[in-house]
Amino acid sequence: xxxxxxxxxxxxxxxxxxxxxxxxxxxxxxxxxxxxxxxxxxxxxxxxxxxxxxxxxxxxxxxxxxxxxxxxxxxxxxxxxxxxxxxxxxxxxxxxxxxxxxxxxxxxxxxxxx
Amino acid sequence: xxxxxxxxxxxxxxxxxxxxxxxxxxxxxxxxxxxxxxxxxxxxxxxxxxxxxxxxxxxxxxxxxxxxxxxxxxxxxxxxxxxxxxxxxxxxxxxxxxxxxxxxxxxxxxxx
Lengths: 114, 112
Description:
Chain A is mainly beta and about 110 residues long. In chain A, about 0% of the residues lie in helices and about 50% in strands. In chain A, strand 7 and strand 8 form a beta hairpin.
């Protein structure tokens, strides 16, 4: 069964450094998402991407964050200058074009900011 | 009022029993609802989704939606210890947004 893949599984970074999280969505899906989950808290939406542009973003997704689809398969989340509070699990998800279709999640990247 | 509200639990049921998980949502415009299972330290795994009023069954799982009451539930029949996890309720199209809005999850413990 097709799945969303994310790399790396764990990223440790010094505060203030840039980090790029990578995702390969399911191949025939057209909507891509990033969510995060701080330890012990609920899953929170960051941003969605469709047709090579951001379609929705949350209040969390400020100027420190950016997303890109650099080629036909990868979808990346960049955090420009990481803060301690960026430590979380980051999940990529994808869904097909139909409005009520479910989103399928990758295994996540655990980001630890020191 | 929380957008998607769940009882945090833990909900403890004996093996073989029916587990009933509930969720309420605040926005009547929400169109579709999803139940994900999340094991500790893992990613959300889709269990069921529903967007029409009534029941939807898939194996041991039944999702129920009542849009008038803004209420979604998940029933797990013949609960197994491997069902022990946190169950996340999520709504799409809340406040016109396709992205999912998650509840905090209900922790289910199935006692052998």
